[in-house]
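Hello Y.,

Per our agreement to keep a running log of every chain we model this quarter, I'm adding this entry. I've kept the format consistent with earlier entries: sequence first, then predicted structure.
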Amino acid sequence: MTSTSQLSELAAEWRDARLLYPLYAALAREFVIDLPPHADLEAGADAPPQESVEQTRQLFSDLDARIQVHQLRQFLQTTTLGSDEALRTLLLHHLRRQAHSDSDRDKIDFLLVQFFSHCAPSRLEDADVDLAYVAQTLEPVLGPVDLNVPEWLNPLNEIVQAANDCRNLSQLLSSRALEKGRKLKLSSGDKYFLPAAMVAFTRFSFLMRRIFFRLMHQDLNAILDGLRELENNGVETLDCRRAQFSAEEPIARLRMICHSWKVMFHAQYSAGQPVSMLVDLRTVVDAALAKNAKAKPAAAKARAQAAGAANADVPDFEVSSATPDWSENAPAAHDAKDDSNPN
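Predicted structure for the entry above:
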């Protein structure tokens, strides 16, 4: 390598470092990670000595080893610093590492999806997210990609199809779609870093993220609608021990929790404890709605019978003893078991 090309590479590396430093500094502040001072980066020096560039490499390497993927995910999905250029630079920074650990793979996997999400139009239809489109969008970081996807990646399409058929989060969790995709990713080893494989996994993760959020919002809206109906019918508390809440949980508090979940789940989508709590809470609310629906006709019938008994001696009115039980003819109440198959 000539001295001119070496200087050019160092200059390019320094430009990237200056772009990445605000991201790393903000990330370190948020998660209380010690960030050693770096005078040239903090001053925004244009042409630092080579020692400063080497010091920067070590700084980023140390930070990369300490930053966990869930921290990176949470930070980039809530910060205003994650521009397309910053994401591209951060992704290339991780891709250029000579050796990749499992943590590096998970970060790259997340960053690929995040970069694709930033670059893709917001109204992109699922049917348009084919391999060719994903490869084209990722070309700034992966370069041109041969789309001869190896056969060992075929299960990804089957997993997405199975996830698409789920009607709620309970069914998604019981399908183990997220777990199956994760297992395939882990078993791929170094093959994950084949460009065609990274494109296939990016498409898979992007579609699975969409499915998760769609079902999550459906479940939350169903819970909130159910809580409103129960409250209108005079119900003030629910026995939510199944969902790890109290035996007399106020509906007002459950509503606040659901709204907070809408924000929290954007930081991470997985089959963790909060998701299981949401699934169980929908089961509780659905069961309460079903019980309430059955109680209504019985109460109405009791009131009608009481009114009939009170007017039995009045000759001007004839009270029929064949009053139908409308609950027998009405559509079956929603069965909570249909929507909750514990994982």
